[in-house]
Specification:
Length: 128
């Protein structure tokens, strides 16, 4: 399995980091009973925990395009070094995006978002 495919796996798991931060990373920790309706619990959060929930949602939204781009680039026999590098940069950008979301650094978050999208576009270009 290529490094880029491992990046897809890590990207698929990344939302769990932000979910954990939202549920247990602040003063309003999710009680066990709230697991029956976690979305209800998450909708009532504030501050960093709320932003961590938003980071989790955005991570889920960004993942399909990345996974598709990696699979398409690999299927098209794009340069493996390029695919691996773009996948690695995407992972770093998406981690930073979530971190900046939690910290409420909106400009840095937007920059990280655009770097990640640039990697997805780059993967499609590499497949061309």
């Amino acid at each position: 399995m290529t490094f880029a495919y491992w990046c897809v796996l890590v990207g698929a798991l990344m939302p769990i980091l932000w979910t954990g931060t939202a549920k247990w990373g602040g003063p309003n920790k999710m009680p066990t009973a709230a697991n029956h309706a976690p979305r209800e619990f998450l909708s009532g959060l504030q501050g960093r925990q709320k932003r961590a929930d938003w980071a989790q949602q955005n991570a889920f939204e960004a993942f399909p395009a990345f996974a598709a781009a990696v699979i398409i680039a690999q299927s098209a026999a794009a340069s493996q070094i390029s695919v691996n590098r773009l996948a690695a940069v995407w992972l770093v950008a998406r981690f930073l995006h979530g971190l900046f979301y939690v910290l409420d650094w909106s400009h840095a978050r937007s920059l990280a978002y655009f770097v990640g999208m640039g990697c997805v576009i780059g993967l499609f270009i590499a497949a061309a």
